[in-house]
């Protein structure tokens, strides 16, 4: 029986993870763990090419979302001045670097995107030969943020690649290296002046904010309609007013907002979490002396805490 030929729109399932690039990953990781109730799954040190063999230039905290057995956030910091993500941070600032969606048949999807002229950051899929984990990035030119497609369908008996927060050093290093073309100087010099890992405990509180789930991700782009069309025609999102709804994950949505020419330093991606107990959330933030604003039934925090602008929504 012949396999049906794949065409647009492709089928994206759940958000697998989103990744931040920040100047201090420990601060941002602790905020999410201690204040928002994310759970630490793993800490991964990687050498993406600027450090000598046996050393590392990239730190990654892998955190599970509250009340979720699949979704993950990765907090990334470049540990040398020559490292890819330190240079990326210096050029573009901190914030959410990419959002990843889980897919099936990733080889067929990659071939389709190539055939249709969609720009990726690499000419091949990054594949871990042991677990079968496969990943690649779509250029940020279409939606204002890099979109990663990831297939976790395991090729091992223990289903390693399907576990929450499973990533490999080689895939992380390989994906990082696909970012070189976005840097002013893609040539990495050897740099063994490696930043020591921060051991400080930040944002210590007796209890955390009660987070229900991710409500929406707002992407700030120059061309809203173009981004909507891409998400709709290529990735299969439904356009419902300002919302872009993934028909396979209807409990959260993407929102697109237009960046005006006069707006400098706008963080490309913002996040909104649905939470319980407005007064408790406010009291916890006040006890930590954090700056925030209240607008109706929501609390807004600037980027210095979460690594991106964050809104806490309350019904």
From TrEMBL:
* GO-annotated biological processes: L-methylmalonyl-CoA metabolic process
VOC domain: residues covered: 14-152
For this UniProt record, the keywords arranged alphabetically read as follows: Metal-binding
**Source organism, top-level taxon:** Bacteria
Q: Give the PROSITE patterns listed for this entry.
A: VOC
* InterPro entries in the cross-refs: Glyas_Bleomycin-R_OHBP_Dase (IPR029068), Glyas_Fos-R_dOase_dom (IPR004360), MMCE/EMCE_epimerase (IPR051785), VOC_core (IPR037523)
Q: Which Gene3D superfamilies match?
A: 2,3-Dihydroxybiphenyl 1,2-Dioxygenase, domain 1 (3.10.180.10)
* Entry protein name: VOC domain-containing protein
Say if the entry is tagged with keyword rRNA-binding. Answer: no
Pfam families named in the record: Glyoxalase
Question: Does the keyword Ligase feature in the UniProt annotation?
Answer: no
A molecular function (GO) term: metal ion binding
């Amino acid at each position: 029986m012949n396999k049906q030929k794949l065409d647009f729109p492709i089928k994206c399932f759940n958000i697998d993870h989103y990744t931040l690039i920040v100047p201090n990953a420990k601060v941002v990781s602790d905020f999410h763990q201690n204040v928002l109730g994310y759970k630490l799954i793993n800490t991964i040190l990687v050498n993406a090419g600027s450090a000598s063999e046996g050393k590392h230039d990239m730190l990654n905290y892998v955190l599970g979302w509250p009340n979720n057995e699949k979704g993950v956030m990765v907090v990334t910091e470049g540990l040398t001045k020559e490292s890819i993500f330190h240079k990326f941070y210096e050029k573009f600032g901190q914030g959410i670097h990419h959002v990843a969606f889980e897919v099936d048949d990733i080889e067929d999807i990659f071939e389709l995107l190539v055939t249709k002229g969609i720009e990726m950051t690499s000419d091949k899929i990054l594949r871990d030969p042991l677990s079968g984990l496969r990943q690649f990035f779509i250029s940020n030119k279409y939606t204002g943020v890099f979109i990663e497609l990831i297939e976790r369908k395991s090729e091992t008996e223990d289903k390693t690649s399907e576990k929450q927060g499973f990533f490999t050093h080689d895939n992380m290093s390989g994906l990082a290296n696909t970012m070189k073309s976005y840097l002013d100087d893609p040539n990495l010099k050897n740099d063994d002046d490696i930043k020591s890992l921060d051991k400080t405990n930040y944002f210590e509180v007796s209890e955390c904010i009660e987070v229900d789930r991710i409500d929406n991700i707002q992407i700030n782009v120059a061309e809203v309609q173009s981004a909507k069309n891409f998400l709709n025609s290529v990735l299969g999102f439904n356009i419902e007013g300002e919302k872009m709804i993934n028909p396979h994950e209807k409990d959260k949505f993407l929102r697109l907002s237009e960046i005006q020419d006069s707006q400098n330093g706008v963080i490309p991606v913002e996040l909104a979490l649905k939470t319980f107990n407005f007064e408790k959330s406010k009291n916890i933030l006040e006890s930590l002396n954090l700056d925030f604003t209240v607008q109706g039934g929501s609390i807004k925090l600037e980027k210095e805490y979460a690594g991106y602008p964050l809104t806490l929504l309350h019904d």
